Amino acid sequence: MDRFMQAAIAEAEQGYAEGGIPIGSVIVHNGAIIGRGHNRRVQKGSAILHGEMDALENAGRQPAAVYRESVLYTTLSPCPMCSGAILLYGIPKVIIGENRTFMGEEELLRSRGVEVQVLQDSRCIALMERFIAEKPELWNEDIGV
Question: What pTM, to 2 d.p., does this model score?
């Protein structure tokens, strides 16, 4: 298993342990994690802190060139909001843990030249399936249903 996806999964597990939604993300530039995060909508009472947004926030303000040379790892297919941030900052590659429990805007990303790789990682799938079974109303809130 790729160490960066492993780091994203660790973030997702931390979010789950905190009572939140188990989605994690890391941003990698030149072989190093520059930002990591997990969905903290519940923990922070936030409307926007999905895993990818939290990782971007934790990466801090970066020059555009850094984003254009980065890879974003996320345990779940990115929603429209997170996909918009990926496009806005010109992140060229996204590696997704799984898209079986939720299909995000992968086609939009691809149509705009982003390389998208989906792993269908069994740990990512199991974590989301467990969470959705335990807290379906919280999951539906997170995806805007």
Answer: 0.96
